[in-house]
Amino acid sequence: MKLVVTGGAGYIGSVVTSQLLDEGHRVTVVDDLSTGHRDAVPEGAEFVQARIHECGELLAQSGFDGVLHFAAKSLVSESVRAPELYWENNVSGTLALLEAVRAAGIPRLVFSSTAATYGEPQVSPITEETPAVPVNSYGSSKLAVDAMLSSYSRAHGIAATSLRYFNVGGARGRFGERHSPETHLIPNLLRVAAGLEESAKIFGTDYDTPDGTALRDYLHVTDLGRAHLLALETSVPGTHRIVNLGTGNGYTVRQVLDTCRAVTGQPIPAEEHPRRPGDPTSLVASNQRARELLGWEPELSLEQIVADAWAFMRSAESS
């Protein structure tokens, strides 16, 4: 297929682009490089530097078979501090992109959604039927796009899939996390292991979990990417599917810390801090729908996530 990947210079977008190319698809990456990296765009992909608001002419002229939409602002704290950025970019930008998709007659779209749409759910594991009650503008903006996709699918026949990710980690060769600031647990722990930070931080030790720290579902980015390819292949015209992506198992912060210590062979000192407001005790995904609709299931372990992320970090430091 001939495909567009928005945000393909970012972490997940670059991984999925590399997987699409390996499967023989032709890929055009669209990214404004506001947070992405030009050198993260895989060789073999065409690159267009542009905002998603500006894709109309590109999509109209090139006969694309589908769009994979990753381009978004994604910092929760920033979305609380400056919600206007998230409504303008994630919602207005996606509306412009959808209009370009509709006008060009592109039949399928896969959207990078998030578990942040669920807010602070009281149930675990979380299914797609769990009420979506986001607690910040990032989650709200993604939920708004889900609503847009549902209406566009019904009205215009687009085959759309929203993939709601839980915690994603790991790397695929030279494609890995390079966020600034970095907010994710595993790369921050590995920064301590690499000597880039003095100590890690554990927020909350009084949760109702086996060791008192928060429980999260960690998915390897390569497993995540496979789900996007399967979503393209199994898409249904006129239908919008919402699908959780996770392993169905949770690990506490201390378990992740211990895994990072074991993989790196470094002590990784950690400081204990009070809970952060709004951090749920447990965020674990049910992946039953992903198994049924996509024929997908995760294959790679937490140890592999950490090992691949560690290899990527050491490679990036030496280059």
Automatic annotation (TrEMBL):
Its cofactor is NAD(+). Keywords: Carbohydrate metabolism, Isomerase, NAD. It is an enzyme of class 5 (isomerase). Belongs to the NAD(P)-dependent epimerase/dehydratase family. Residues 4-246 form the NAD-dependent epimerase/dehydratase domain. GO terms for molecular function: UDP-glucose 4-epimerase activity. PROSITE patterns: ADH_SHORT (PS00061). InterPro entries: Epimerase_deHydtase, NAD(P)-bd_dom_sf, Sc_DH/Rdtase_CS, UDP_G4E. Its EC number is 5.1.3.2. It comes from the Bacteria. Pathway: Carbohydrate metabolism; galactose metabolism. It catalyses: UDP-alpha-D-glucose = UDP-alpha-D-galactose. One of its GO terms (biological process) is galactose catabolic process via UDP-galactose, Leloir pathway. This is UDP-glucose 4-epimerase. CDD domains: UDP_G4E_1_SDR_e (cd05247).
